[in-house]
Amino acid sequence: MEPPAVRDDPRPVGAAAVVRDPLPTQGLLDFRVIELLFFAYREFTGDADSILEKYGFGRAHHRVLHFVNRDPGLTIAELLDILQITKQSLSRVLRQLIDEDFICQIPGDEDRRQRRLYPTEKGRALAIELSRAQVRRIEAALAKTTDEDMRPIATFLTAMASDRQAARDWFERKDISWKDRE
Fold it and tell me: Which residues are the signal sequence here (predicted)?
């Protein structure tokens, strides 16, 4: 009886081909901006995540708190449009924020079926605490830039975030633009 043939391939039989070369930094795809955005987002959200964790909240809670505080009286339909999430996704997060007195829900004046969302004092305080943590990081990063650097940064971020009409509407409503500003 002959011994089994020895394979030179270190992969298990039937396994997919292994690629050992890293993706290039530049070339067909430029991964540098992707990585910069990844790490910047991780640190930006990490500052708030550690605060949210104390409350048993996550990033969805943060987003809801942020937009309700920025636009008190926002309807649930408007919030769904801004966040681009389902009613089911919002429901659990919103219920927790309401039950723990961070947000209150009030029927609309003209249409009682409409539900308007308002921050409570507790919700406002948490939104400010979360924002302060993130503003410190932004200010530290911008301290390394000049006023001339801000316009292309803002133009880039606006272009990255403006695909959806809800975002463009928000930017316009809140006058988020660096066009013609000195």
Answer: none
